[in-house]
Protein 1
Amino acid sequence: MRKIIINGGYPLRGKVKISGAKNASLAIICAALMSDEPLLLDNVPNISDIQVLLEIISIMGVKANWQGPGLLYIEPSVKIDVKAPYEQVKKLRASNLLLGPLLAKHGCASVALPGGCNIGVRPMDLHFKGLSGLGAKMSLEQGCVIGKVDKLKGARIYLDFPSVGATENIMMAACLASGQTIIENVAKEPEIVDLANFLNAMGAKVRGAGTDLIKIKGTTVLGGCKKYSIIPDRIEAGTYMVAAAATRGDVLLENIIPKHLEPFIAKLREANVSIEEGEDTIRVQAKNELKAIDIKTMPYPGFPTDMQSQMMVLLSTVPGFSTITENIFENRFQITDELKRLGAKIKTEGRLAVIEGVPTLQGTNVKATDLRAGAALLIAGLIATGKTQITNSEYIYRGYQNIQEKLNALGASVEQV
Ligand code: EPZ
């Protein structure tokens, strides 16, 4: 079990380069399995979630190796084992994104049900609805999701909820289905648009990504693409923006797409954080007294649920009463118990959290319960007086490349033991 120790109290100052998007990379690596030719991905973050997915596809027979920082070479082979290995799949929920590509390319798939995780049950009913709608026979056998089909057939599918994963699985599968597929009430996250752009770079015909309705004309072959560059990670960027504001520092983030952070920038400005947007940079300063605000997490372009824990930390030292309503996951307030140990004043009731700002937090031992809660506790350690120790810190390395080096380069004092 890995631990991180933070000596708090230093405002973050300087520049930080944001890495490629974890959630776009995971979907795009799964989509790459549909290609008949080798391909090259650029700006892929080297984080443990990616390492686990590469281990899974390698065991299945796909050749994948790093050819430089962020440069990932993938060579899908004709014969692959369509059964994703159970041990590794248990470590990575996103392995369920293998279902669509395997069904589309090989007509069968077997992926262990990743099971719930700390933030919620994470059902797959919408994945099943979509893939069955395309003609696949879906079942659950011995804890594995099994799918079988001769040839996927285009269909019209309505998503009861704009699920990111279900949108991605159905969109990928439809690319090699016969005929046209229309998916309604889809997720509109930037990662969906990035996946659609990658599929089209491989010769697919996906239209409408980023809107409520996506139209796909099935093709028979998907080729490699010279080099596809993954979008920057808006959640990594948001995490550093909160760290800069919470430590009352002055940080310039580089290699980002400000548009992807719009909902988040709006909320930080409402809290009186000063934000200067550049072409591919954002400067964050907390020059003035910050203000208590109310946040509701919603599907994109609403406030991102993956930034909820980080904002809770920021608001825990902002005078007044702030509220957070978590509308996406049913159990994403576990961090409050840990923040209370640091001196935060937070009350939760179902999906509502009420935060009463306190002057400072005091360092102590806390434990990470999931990826974003872990990152949020890191920020809490940066602002707490004295030393904070975070156990289960391996959660953090799932989604943040070189986070310790990046924070220390900004003047923090973070060490891993
Ligand atoms: C993706 O998860 C992200 N993960 C999550 O990021 C992110 O929090 C989430 O989207 C929401 O933005 C990846 O992209 C790998 P959903 P996903 O399907 O696809 C319900 C992180 O920290 N639902 O949009 O699993 C579900 O219960 C991770 O990087 C169904 O009811 O999210 C949840 O309440 C955490 N039936 C809501 O939709 C389904 O079939 C959102 O889930 C699927 C989902």
Protein 2
Amino acid sequence: MPKTIVAGNWKMNLTSRDALTLVKILDNTIESKKVTIVLIPSFTLLPAVASVIPSRFSLGAQNMHFSAKGAFTGEVNASQLQDVGCSYVIVGHSERRHVFGESDGMVNKKVLAALAADLIPILCVGETAEEKDTVDAVLKRQVETGLASVTKSQMKKVVIAYEPVWAIGTGNTATPAEADSAHGVIRKIVSSVYDVKTAESVSILYGGSVKADNCKELFKQKNIDGALIGGASLDAEEFSSIVADA
Ligand code: PGA
């Protein structure tokens, strides 16, 4: 899989008809073959999107439960995601952490369960506005705890997304230098837990108000390997243009 990844997190948007139209337009407008493209719709849209998604795009889910099965009303497990054709799953998105109270420990269980089911977890980390002064410590805790018990060989199947909470859906993107520095911190943490080679090969995506008009500078940064896009991924023209620049 190409190391450069552009993933569209559609969040709680679209119905199946709109989703199918969006996939069709993306298929017609996206030409790049050097980028891994991941489309991440709501659970209910997964079967419809899976039935039309071209094989050059991958399908992902926005969340999952860490248990294999059981009495967890309203939850979805990793093998159910596999079953509908997902190969990626977002884990620990800031909206899950801050709106739904997911802890680092829960996020870690999800990472391990995703890997066990052969899904690629996109582990999201990032500081809140209040944590800006302690960003390195926040990233260290989130990355180290999130990856606890993940082996070096499993790291080949892990993607990390740096998404400063204050930048998500706000229009306030981190500057390219700020983002690159945080990605560098994450790479150092991965290097100290595993080794330099693992740190160099892991894909680290930036997320938080990425748009067609600010992505170029972000993608030029040494430590930025792609993007996790929310709002702009619902607009076919914006998303295609971001992929073209990646
Ligand atoms: P945004 O969301 O692009 O709308 O800021 C990014 C994300 O939450 O993954």
